[in-house]
Amino acid sequence: MTATNPLLQDFDLPPYSSIRPEHVEPAIDVILADSRVALAELLTKQSGIPTWDGLVLALDELGARLGRAWSPVSHLNAVCNSLELRAAYEACLPKLSQYWTEIGQNKPLFEAYQALANSPAAADFEPAQSTILKHALRDFRLSGIDLPAAEQQRYGAIQMKLSELTSTFSNQLLDATQAWTKHITSEAELAGLTDSAKAQMVQAAQAKDLDGWLISLEFPSYYAVMTYADDRALREELYAAYCTRASEQGPNAGQFDNGPLMVEILDLRQELAQLLGFDNYGELSLASKMADSNAQVLSFLRDLGQRGKPFAVRDLAELQAFAAELGCAELQSWDAGYYAEKMRQQRYSLSQEEVRAWFPIDKVLSGLFAIVQQLYGIEIKELSGFDSWHADVRLFQISEQGQPVGRFFFDLYARANKRGGAWMDGARDQRRAANGELISPVANLVCNFTPAVNGQPALLTHDEVTTLFHEFGHGLHHLLTRVEQAGASGINGVAWDAVELPSQFMENWCWEPQGLALISGHFETGEPLPQDLLDKMLAAKNFQSGMQMVRQVELSLFDFELHASHGDGRSVLEVLEAIRAEVSVMRPPAYNRFANSFAHIFAGGYAAGYYSYKWAEVLSADAFSKFEEDGVLNPETGRAFREAILARGGSQEPMALFVAFRGREPSIDALLRHCGLSEEAA
Questions:
Q1: For the whole prediction, is pTM greater than 0.90?
Q2: Could you confirm whether 471 is annotated as catalytic?
Q3: The CATH fold of domain 2-174
Q4: What share of the chain in percent tops pLDDT 70?
Q5: Catalytic residue among 218, 353, 471, 512
């Protein structure tokens, strides 16, 4: 089996079509066993005064081998989920958790890192090397290196259980999303929906051997109904199904219920934090972030909430008045998107569907590439003849001065058995290998856009265009690194509350006339975006921005308060309701169970860290204001941003990198101005 297992072979890009569920666990077992032997040998050799190459680089080599096998498995589990693959993936989670806990609690390894940090050679290390050592010593302590043996064992058991629970949360959310559909046989029930949305629903029905139309809880389908369906009862039915996924409420009540999992996850995180000497998980989360304290994060969020709430109150009053004029006397959660779209059309003569025609996928991609090529001095070309996990997947290469820099996969469209949302993950890190070879980075960029229908190209809403730019910003952070040490290359080692800076920064070009001119063109004629449509889009940019701001603050405060106050006797729902009472302006119905599908904090990396979006948005808006001063496509400013932020990865503290680019610490003013929430806008 070993000789034929693709996960145990050397390869450039993963042989996705050859990877089978039965390959997964045997490969991971072999690699973990080999790694334990190699680590023991490494520590024997480094027992005197360790060297960088003998210790850190050798450990990077072990990590790279494990990552080469596990990265494609983890990726396939997210984008091509099946019962067999899921079982193989989950069988490995406790083994991997145990292995990483062993690494984090390996006393001789910790002492070797300490000895290297204190060695005479350390004085001559590059900034990236010094930062990697500093972070490694911090992470040893956060892994329980100083704990008594019994507590170390408990730490390991908690981590193992958490990896299992968070995976189950994600699986149950996916299963709950796919468990509900609505089969429509009369087109009259879909009045108001766009032709493209209905075509997608016909396609979904045909895939299940059904006539008519099939509505699902995948986001493109959900969004279409909530935004355009004239049938209020249909909107309410879909809303109820969507906001009660994986809960004890709604049409599939009790099926795939994530409620008990959330409590267990929070209990274990709290216990973990206290084991390590922190009062709560919020403090533990901040030990490796930019923010200094719970109080600083909560103050930052509440300040944003207070600044945004007057605008949100105004937004809601306008929307309620508009809906009342059209016969909706009491605006509910399932009405907001529908009437907001109608109001946008009336106020700005602008509809999302009209805009979609100007953003065919290939035009958006070519414009996106043109923007980053001008800013950063790179070239991007599409590659063919590669192994893939789905026919829609595309592969691109970035080059600089004719030399390949890195590659990235695009998997852009929603489909069954694919996790919802959008994300970037580093499929391979840049690093200088032990033999001197520079290993180039590879990224996976995943979205869930509406696929092409009826022979037309895939047409994106402007929101989807913004999502694409956001994820590509993460990709550039990973791919344009100049750091050659794995621990700080790309997004590795970047504080979590700074990691959204490059992604949110990229979104700005979706609103700039010079950027829009490059990314838009009518899908039938190729004509550029008309000036009047551009003017409408720019005028509508901050439509309902007050409500959007308080919604993000609500999510961020809920996440942080949940982790900082766990154990005070309140349930998850009670914490959420208290935050809503404080900052939100439109309360959802009592049956809403949003928390049960909040995968960012229960199955992703954002636990007590969701505030990072707003925190980094301050950085990104202020960074972009430099481009507003110098010219939005100014190559000189682009190169400066690349060299100060994108190229440096986790090699230095984020504030130092920001100051190196901007010449000062960040100000909130640019964010408030960009969102239309400054004093002048009031």
A1: yes
A2: yes
A3: Neurolysin; domain 3 (1.10.1370)
A4: 99
A5: 471
